[in-house]
Design goal:
This protein has 2 domains: about 180 residues, NAD(P)-binding Rossmann-like Domain (Rossmann fold), CATH 3.40.50; about 150 residues, N-(1-d-carboxylethyl)-l-norvaline Dehydrogenase, domain 2 (Orthogonal Bundle). It is globular. The longest helix is centred in the middle third of the chain and has 20 residues. It contains 18 helices and 12 strands. Helix 4 runs parallel beside helix 5.
Length: about 375
């Protein structure tokens, strides 16, 4: 794929950056489908068993129509140049706290025609990576895109073995600039029919439902997590009617910030129906109706990405942009404050603020030019 076009007779080569739950699921699934896959991980310890075997086994619950089998990988490496050179599509499947580092590390090796897709971008991921590559002086014609959420509900169960609970029905993907989104969808369609065009990266970022489902649920179940080490079903048991009402308050603030930017964002309840066919009159009912959440247990501790990633990379940017636009976000700010206290840190300092995303001081028209045309 060069100049963002793939020959009809050639499947794209995928580089999957990150060997966590999602990265293993994606690498294994892509390889099972017959694609050449290079798997990169920053730390060698995590991928050493996979490096020796060059394979990832994908398992699923009986009765589920989910891909399963053994995916054989072409490359397993800690060398970024080896992973991305010659790859057509670079799938970034790491916590959002690592996006800027990955962008800086891959910058010297990028080539014309490559596509970088964040799975997911959380809130502002594509903007951050685009800004980082620009700051690093990248001149290659590279498209940066982000998925609204991770395609898989999955868990790594053993070294080189991952369980997929569910593959979402549809996941919007958007690129910077927005008119490149169809090119990205076309390239991804050689492997995935689930990716659909998103309007733009503001909408995919603001429709980051993990911002609603992860930090608050973890914090409001913190005593139970610490006393049981996560031995309960995170979504099904952890989101009671009262917890769901807190999530709904945060969700209203998220939608309001999106509206202030000029974009209509779907509610969390609407998203559950779109992604999982899970319907309900309330958010609590919709969550209980989602079979894809059954069997997923809570984090074993509070030093977990649901806080360490989703607070600074999902909630902070929503509240920061809200401050910039004059949209109050008291419920979101409360959760950030509680996370700061529990972790004895300042996520307002380390998180993605409007300044770090390059949005501070921009007019709404300038933000739209950046998103739609890629103009800094």
């Amino acid at each position: 794929m060069r100049k963002h076009m793939l020959g009809k007779k050639r499947r794209p080569v995928f580089a999957v950056l990150g060997a966590g739950h999602g990265g293993m699921a994606m690498a294994g699934h892509l390889a099972i489908m017959g694609h050449e896959v290079r798997l990169f991980n920053r730390s060698p310890e995590r991928i050493e068993p996979i490096r020796r075997s060059k394979r990832v086994e994908v398992i699923a619950r009986n009765g589920e129509e989910i891909p399963r089998g053994v995916g054989r990988l072409a490359v397993v490496t800690t060398d970024m140049k080896e992973a991305v050179t010659g790859a057509d599509i670079i799938m970034v499947v790491v916590p959002a706290t690592g996006h800027a580092w990955l962008a800086e590390t891959m910058a010297p090796h990028l080539q014309d025609g490559q596509m970088i897709v964040l799975h997911p971008g959380r809130t502002g991921g594509a903007l951050e990576v685009h800004h980082t590559l620009h700051a690093r002086g990248v001149t290659a014609d590279v498209v940066v895109a982000e998925a609204q959420t991770l395609l898989y509900a999955c868990r790594a169960v053993n070294p080189g073995q991952v369980q997929i609970f569910r593959v979402k029905n549809s996941v919007p993907v958007a690129a910077i600039p927005a008119h490149r989104t169809p090119d990205v969808i076309q390239a991804l369609s050689t492997a995935y029919s689930q990716f659909i065009p998103g309007d733009n990266v503001i909408k995919t970022g603001m429709n980051n439902i993990g911002a609603i489902f992860h930090p608050a649920v973890t914090l409001l179940n913190s005593a139970r997590i610490e006393s049981t080490h996560g031995d309960f079903e995170y979504y099904v048991e952890g989101i009671t009617p009262s917890v769901a009402r807190v999530l709904e308050a945060m969700d209203r603030e998220r939608v309001a910030v999106g509206a202030a930017l000029g974009f209509n964002c779907m509610s969390a309840r609407e998203w559950l129906y779109s992604a999982y066919d899970a319907a309900g009159k309330t958010l609590h009912e919709a969550i209980q109706a989602n079979r894809g959440y059954y069997g997923i247990t809570a984090p074993a501790h509070l030093n977990h990405r649901y806080l360490t990633e989703d607070v600074p990379m999902s909630l902070v940017p929503i509240a920061s942009v809200g401050d910039m636009l004059g949209v109050p976000c008291p419920a979101i700010k409360t959760i950030v404050t509680l996370a700061n206290i529990m972790h004895e840190c300042d996520y307002w300092e380390t998180g993605r603020t409007a300044e770090k995303l390059g949005l501070a001081g921009l007019t709404l028209e300038q933000i739209r030019l950046l998103v739609l045309e890629g103009k800094m």
